[in-house]
Specification:
It contains eleven helices and 69 strands. The chain has 867 residues and is mostly beta strands.
């Protein structure tokens, strides 16, 4: 059997090929009967004995079977074939010879009668030569075989069925005598006709992509069979039969359906069947239809062109993950853009909204709203997190929005691309300090803890080490000395205290105290606490220690050997850990009894208000002289009262002059002199009033200030230092040495620091005239823009008298400082657009920090590009 596409199938069981020899002579005629022909054995038995008979094996190629026999019998000049056929197609074994396949067998066909003289081919097949297809087939076969050909344009077979055995179409000179016996032909009940599938549609069928098309115009006809088994299938997409046909479906899936029914029923099923293309399919597909009448099968291929229609891109984004403060490079799946009919380079992504916690970077440049790029550039796109804390509400997520266009009308509206931000714990910053006076007890230790991503209210604090020198003081928590490894909550930090024992190392500048702590945070959203170690520095502020009256035993004078006695430090001694012996001044608040004797310093009598120092005592310059006439065996008691000062100011616990105190006032101490006179004294002058020497107050000799060249003091540049000399600052005091004249700072400078031996001298700190004379005192400017201070106040004490409320002028020469510009908010604008920067915009773009006060009035020029 055959159809218009020339694919002819035979569904019958195969019959073995057989050759029947009827003559002892070499045959000149070959009769070929296709196994699909009804009663093929009857026909074979009716062949004339002189002809060779070949019944084709239905499982093998019939053309090749014929070629094999013809090569074995080169004397054959006439080939007679009985087989089912349709116009332009004849069934031969498991193949068909048709207009579509004949050229494929061109070489094989040309060998059939290579040595035969006037070969003929008789084709008994229904309608084989009918119409243009049949004529084209006969002509091509004639050209390839060079044989004369006889065929029929009518049905071949039993006359009662409207058929005949006449070959009414001839090409060339033909002897059409049928080699089969006439009685066999007349009694043959069948017709060599196959089902025929015709297509009334002459133009190509087409449908738009993903659009259903109804198939019409196909018709199945069969002259000798009413029941048909039809299979319809498609190579792409799905096929569905028209409803209400009455056929019986025996097998089906989405792409193939097999059903049976009468000719009328199967035609009703295929007329209006629907073809649906596969999703996104745009190409030519083939609809295959075959019909079997129980003997032979007809097939037809119908081409359906599926024309492309632009498919809009789709999007299914998945979140990119970035570490807090880090960056991430996107991959295609983060955007999830798909387009079945465009390549990635054709799909344009445009930024519709920027992320709020970072920015997008492509090729090193930040993207703005309106920036666009092809989707194949997604692996080059980065998101940079700006460090926004993940512990704030919404801090673990960010997003930006895009639109997508494929350039052919397919658009994706604004869609968010999510970003997941994983927390990175930022360790706390810890600064621990306290300023306490030497000797101050139970001073709370301050820990300043800041943590940008801490959400818990408290931290855990761990003691890592004790203070470096335990001899200097004790660190306690709740009144108990801390231990290494001890932990407590920051909520209880007020219970951490330090008590200083009051040492006076480093010339009265006790060293700072340090110890180490560890602070644990809450993990900053990671769930894993982080630890930060820090050194806590306790600044020990020097404080003038009051002198201590260590020895005050009085003295005994026995006039037997002498009438005077030296007062030594074994009789009267004052100690002070942070003051020199020359500064420990005794002031007489009550003189000795002038009728008994006199108190002399360096041979001069001293009276009420006079002073002497511990150095005077240590060097034997203070003595008592008895001046009264007595009789033998008398005894007397004399005394003087004194106050003790160290010439410095004590700041803690209250600001006051340093001295020996009783309660809140300077102590009135009494030194007793016991006098015994074993012998009479007749030449004393005790009745004479002594010449009393009192202490003279110091006066300013020089106060030229600092940075006052007009007054004669050297200049001082910003950030520099200058030594203070006696030519710049000095006092005169006729009865006190330079080391006894103590300068005290009573109002500190606002723009620098006085130093003694390189150590800072702060408020209430002191230095002596001798320190100035020896070049040990200097002033260091602090590099600030504070250049003039006319209110530095100091006083001078000689141990008894006080020169107060003295002013020292400071004037520093400014040095030009370059301005510092910090860039603030970045202004972004799309390519080829303009943006006006107003003054308030400039203020947000550039925060200009002019760090110097005197520089801030200088004009600042900002060059702008010409384009």
């Amino acid at each position: 059997m055959a159809n218009s596409t020339s694919i002819c199938l035979n569904d019958r069981l195969p019959a073995p090929a057989r050759s029947l020899e009827r003559s002892l002579h070499a045959p000149t005629q070959l009769v070929v009967i296709d196994a699909g022909v009804e009663n093929s054995s009857t026909l074979a038995n009716g062949v004339h004995p002189s002809a060779k008979v070949l019944v084709l094996d239905s499982d093998q190629n019939g053309i090749m079977q014929i070629s094999q026999v013809l090569r074995s019998h080169p004397a054959i000049t006439t080939l007679t074939i009985l087989a089912h056929g349709i116009p332009g197609c004849i069934d031969l074994g498991n193949t068909s010879l048709s207009n579509d396949t004949i050229t494929r067998y061109g070489w094989e066909l040309s060998t059939w009668f290579a040595r035969a003289h006037k070969p003929q081919i008789h084709l008994y097949s229904c309608n084989l030569a009918l119409g243009n297809s049949g004529i084209e087939f006969i002509q091509t076969l004639h050209r390839l075989t060079q044989a004369s050909i006889a065929a029929s344009t009518e049905f071949i077979g039993h006359t009662a069925s409207g058929s005949n055995w006449h070959l009414n179409y001839q090409l060339g000179q033909i002897d059409t005598q049928n080699p089969i016996a006439l009685d066999i032909l007349e009694s043959y009940p069948g017709v060599l006709a196959s089902p025929i599938i015709t297509d009334a549609v002459t133009t190509p069928r087409s449908t738009a992509e993903e659009t259903v098309i109804s198939i019409t115009g196909l018709t199945i006809s069969d002259t000798d069979g009413d029941t048909q088994t039809v299979t319809v299938s498609v190579t792409e997409g799905t096929i569905a039969l028209a409803t209400g046909s009455g056929v019986t479906v025996t097998g089906s899936n989405a792409t193939s359906i097999t059903f049976t029914g009468t000719v009328a029923q199967v035609n009703a099923a295929i007329n209006g069947m629907n073809y649906t293309p596969s999703l996104n399919y745009a190409d030519t597909t083939t609809l295959s239809i075959s019909s079997n009448d129980g003997t032979t099968t007809a097939s037809k291929l119908v081409a359906i062109a599926v024309t492309p229609v632009n498919d809009a891109p789709t999007i299914a984004p998945s979140a990119a993950t970035v570490a807090e403060g880090g960056n991430v490079t996107f991959v295609a799946t983060n955007f999830g853009i798909a387009d079945v009919d465009n390549i990635a380079a054709q799909i344009i992504v445009k930024v519709a909204a920027l992320p709020s916690k970072g920015f997008l970077v492509l090729d090193g440049g930040k993207l703005a709203v309106g920036s666009s790029f092809a989707s194949d550039r997604i692996p080059d796109l980065q998101y940079v997190h700006d460090g926004t804390q993940t512990t704030v509400p919404g801090g673990t997520s960010d997003s930006f929005s895009i639109t997508v266009a494929d350039g052919a009308g397919g658009i994706i509206s604004s869609t968010a691309i999510a970003i997941t931000i994983t927390p990175i714990n930022q360790l706390p910053t810890v600064a621990g300090s306290a300023i306490l006076f030497e000797g101050e007890a139970n001073k709370p230790v301050t820990l300043t803890i800041s943590d940008l991503d801490q959400t818990a209210a408290t931290y855990t604090i761990k003691i890592l080490s004790q203070p470096v020198n335990p001899a200097h003081g004790t660190l306690t928590f709740n009144g108990t000395a801390v231990t290494v490894g001890q932990t407590f909550s920051s909520a209880d930090l007020a219970n951490l205290k330090y008590s200083h024992f009051g040492n006076d190392e480093n010339f009265g500048n006790p060293p700072n105290v340090t110890f180490n702590v560890e602070v644990l945070d809450d993990g900053g959203g990671t769930g894993v606490p982080g630890a930060k170690t820090a050194t806590v520095t306790l600044g020990i502020k020097p404080n003038n220690d009051d002198p201590i009256l260590a020895i005050n035993t009085g003295i005994t004078l026995d006039t037997t050997s002498a009438r005077e006695v030296v007062i030594t430090n074994t009789n009267l001694n004052v100690t002070d850990p942070d003051s020199g012996i020359p500064q420990l001044a005794y002031t007489l608040s009550q003189a000795v009894d002038p009728t008994l004797g006199s108190l002399q310093l360096n041979g001069s009598k001293i009276g009420l208000g006079a002073t002497f120092t511990q150095a005077d005592i240590n060097q034997g310059r203070l003595k008592y002289v008895f001046n009264r006439n007595t009789t033998a065996g008398q005894s007397f008691t004399d005394s003087f009262k004194f106050e003790v000062r160290d010439s410095s100011i004590t700041e803690f616990p209250t600001v006051r002059e340093g001295g020996v105190y009783s309660g809140g006032a300077l102590a009135q101490n009494t030194f007793t002199i016991s006098i015994s006179t074993p012998d009479a004294i007749v030449d004393a002058t005790g009745s004479n009033a002594p010449t009393v020497v009192t202490n003279t107050a110091p006066v300013i000799a020089n106060n030229l200030g600092i940075g006052q060249p007009a007054a004669g003091s050297p200049t001082l540049n910003e950030g520099g230092s200058v030594g203070i000399t006696s030519a710049m600052l000095s006092v005169n005091d006729p009865d006190n040495s330079p080391e006894q004249l103590v300068y005290r700072i009573e109002k500190s400078p606002t723009n620098g620091t006085f130093k003694l031996n390189g150590n800072p001298v702060g408020l209430y700190g002191s230095f002596t005239q001798k320190d100035i004379n020896d070049g040990k005192v200097s002033f260091q400017h602090d590099s600030s823009e504070d250049f003039i201070d006319a209110d530095v106040t100091f006083s001078v004490s000689d141990g008894t008298n006080l020169l107060s409320n003295q002013k020292l002028k400071l004037d520093v020469i400014p040095q030009n400082d370059n301005p510092v510009i910090t860039v603030g908010t970045t202004v972004s604008l799309a390519e080829s657009t303009e943006k006006t920067l107003r003054l308030q915009t400039l203020a947000s773009v550039m925060s200009m920090v002019l760090a110097k006060k005197r520089d801030k009035d200088l004009p600042l020029l900002i060059p702008l590009p010409s384009k």
